[in-house]
Amino acid sequence: MTAAGHNGSALGGARTDGPIGSRFDERFLRKLESLALTIRRTTAGRSHGMRRSRRVGAGLEFADHRDYVPGDDLRYLDWNLYGRLERRALRLYEEDEDLSIDVLVDASASMGMGQPPKLDLALQICAALAYVGLSNLDRVAVTALGAEIAGPPPARGKARILPILRFLDAVRPRQSTSRTSLAAAVREFLSRRRGRRRGLVTLISDFYDPAGARAALELVRRNRLEAIAVQLSAPDELSPQLRGDLQLCDVETGEVRDLTVSPGALADYARRHATLLRELRGHCREHAIPCFTLSSDQPFDAVVLRMFRTGGLLG
Amino acid sequence: MELGGLAQVIDAGSGALSTTAAAVFGVAGAASITALYLLRLRRRRVVVAFAPLWLGAAGAERATRRTRRLRHWLSLALALTLFAAILIGAVDPERGAPTQGAIDRGGRSLVLLIDRSASMSATDEMGSRLGAARRRADEIIGGLAGTDRALVASFAADASAESGFESDPLRLRRAVAGVSPGDEPGDLQRALAFAAAILRGRPRPTVVLVSDGGFTDDARRLAPTDPDGRVLDVRYAPVGRRADNVGILSLAARRIPADPGAVETALVVQSFRPTASTTAVEISSAGTVVEKVNLTLAPGERRRLTLPNLFAPDARVEARLTGADDLAVDDHAQATIPPLPRRRILRVGGPDLYLDGALLGLGRTVHVDRLPAAEADRALARARDYDLVVFDGVTPSAPPSAGRYLYFDPQGAGNPFAAAGAARPARPVRDPVIDPASLRREHPLLQELDLADVNVAEAHRLVLGPDDVALAGSFGLPLIVTRERPALRIAALAFDPRRSDLPMRPAFPLLIANALAWATRQTDDAAAGAPLVDAGGTARDARESDTTPVPALTLGGHLLPPADPPARHFRARLGIWALMLAAALLLFDWLSYHRRWTT
Lengths: 315, 599
Prior knowledge:
CATH superfamily of the largest domain in chain B: Class I glutamine amidotransferase (GATase) domain
Helix content of chain A: 25-40%
Number of domains of chain B: 4
CATH class of the largest domain in chain B: Alpha Beta
CATH superfamily of the largest domain in chain A: von Willebrand factor, type A domain
Number of helices of chain B: 12
Largest sheet of chain B: 7 strands, mixed
CATH topology of the largest domain in chain B: Rossmann fold
Strand order of the largest sheet of chain A: 6-5-4-7-8-11
Structural class of chain B: alpha/beta
Number of helices of chain A: 9
Shape of chain A: elongated
Oligomer: heterodimer
């Protein structure tokens, strides 16, 4: 049975008017639905669709006081406090609102490397996060950094998953001769997002740009958005099987360098790769950014479940 | 290349490449390898996600590249060396030398003559003397020059070739390893004649004798010559370190006719030790030790032992020396006991149950014919057909001149012990008493007999001639006499046994058996030979038991020079070494490739 011929069955209320694509087949959609159910049971008891934001407003739960300034709504003045201390202060309440979730997928050429390609897992994770967010009535937007096509507008409700899936299915690694700057791509994303409320930004990338990675995460944090970093590596990148005299060609820059891959060179590579990951994790830990380092041969549902269980994502 | 040209390129005799062809192949191959190696230098392009992870500092990279270039050249040198080794192996310069069976006028023709006689089983050398001889032969083979040809032969009582003329050390060593020890004495002259015949017509003939040198003086008296009468070049490679051996040289056994259940054994033991030593000999039959004799032998002493009256339940006796020495093969001997010969007895006289009973007791091997007393003269005519003729109270008309006889109370003119010229018969002597002092107990006729108190009613006087012996008597009256002359042997009782109590005694059948054994003894000894050796016994050559080392051997009055010391020159074929080098390089190339040392 195909996704096209089974309207709405695989994704609850979502209707699939046609084939979504090779990446997101019927099996994937069923796993997605199963994953959403599992996460819903995991987060049972919480008010879905109304995550408490940091915004102070017309909520029910007391948050803090602040001094009264002319023009403030007198309804929020704490008269009891004024009676005891003769201090004019406003009572602040936490405002309940739906969460704005942005999932950014690095679509640079390096994400197309690996067997299986890192981009495939990145897009699957993106789809899963988006579906779970939509199921929670959060406002979800997906963006492919460096891709030549723009993502769909932010949406709410899981019936909107299909446009997102079609978009993700169309995403291809960028073919270029210059390295994609992750920071520049995030900066561009943030400029397009300007005006939207604060929320959660999940950045999925290989982060093979140490300076750019830190800058991108810093940009997200400075814009008062919560960031989550998902770093992907291909198995071939974690333990390369290369030997002998080679011409190394960088997939993004096209630069060609001669190298003899000896056991010593392999050890150097492993050391550099570990350093890159260690620095990324250190930066995230320093700024309380959840960080996941994954291999592209891991199943996406297990990855997403782990993110929800251990990473506090959406929790 | 045309077939004819190819035939010229490849030597038909050896199958090796000619030098010109090798040069052509070498140049072409080297060029091809170099070209292929340059192609091999092209690097494989690999696309990676993030090249900076792979590339370290630029300086280190340059150093790596320089090292890599050097390794490439080393790898090329390795490949060219490998090719050269294979080419040399194919050309095989030493193959220009004569191949199997061809005669090389420049090299020696050697016969390695390895002694495999019984003494080479001595264990004074590590393993045995033959093992030491094999090792010595291997050393000699290792010292052969490339143009030498050698043949391995071994000898004991006869000589045999173990290989053809070879230059291949491996084949020669295999032939040496195939020499097995024997238990025969070594016949040096036959072996040298064999070697000389093989070497006839070959250049620089040389015989290398690998032996312990235990040969007879006769064998060493003659100078070795080839069939054309020229003195042969014989070298001597001695083996053996000490003389520590006691050996059984011979063993023989036979049954005693007088006592078929007993066995007489003769044994010769000799010590070849330089000091006096004690050893023990065990005689056994059917697995049971029936006699044990302790011997103390002086250096070189040869001791002959005769062991009579041994009980042997089996038809075979074995002798074994106890105590360790260097040569085990002569510590054991065995002999088959021949059955008693069939005997024929002619009994002449009237009925005599006592005599018939005694004759019956001689067993199935004795056949008894009978003649009445009236045909006593006829018995004389048939005496040659019998081992013993018994005249039981009967005397033929004339004394016999040949044959073997036993007379009971002979009387009358035919009495061989009658007094010459007596006109009438002598009167009998009544109740003679046997004088114990007159008994000749050592005589075979009286062995194991007790006649001291035999009662005799009457006896007639026997007159002894010069060849006669009285074995028992009664104070001057001979009672038992014997006469031994060529072809004639007579024993006589001066009385009729029936007029005595002798037939009632155990001595009577023993007397009859002893008389038969005595009568036939000379014949048995002649048949068995002296010393006592029969066809089923053991007889060894004392030279093979004498393990005294002979460090220098003289043949025909000339001291044999030692074998050439092992040559120090490079012996093995260059081609084989080249191929081995090629194989080693292949292995190294494989290792270096998989270890990423050279690629």
